Amino acid sequence: MMRFTLGIPGFDDAQIPRIIGLAGGSLLIANHVLGSQPTPLAQTLAEVLGLALASLAFAIPNLDAWVNGGKQAASATITGARNVFSLAEDLSEDAKVVRAR
């Protein structure tokens, strides 16, 4: 889902959305607890929306693994299935190398 890396050794970059969601949700809860009481309706609605978005960001790594796992399992369960890579016979060797990358 996210196509960049932090380059930190030992850190799985797929977990970046989860960390962002956890940090955002924590800040929203801290803002609610430390904010003015009683909480205005507009602030409450904004916090509910923010928590929904933080929850979605927290769940993205699981959703990504579920979707990608389903794609791999679907192709692996077909009996007699095989992968085929074919190029046109009239292509030059250089063109074949470029397309095969």
From TrEMBL:
GO annotation, biological process: cytochrome b6f complex assembly
Pfam families linked to this entry: CCB2_CCB4
Name this protein carries in UniProt: Uncharacterized protein
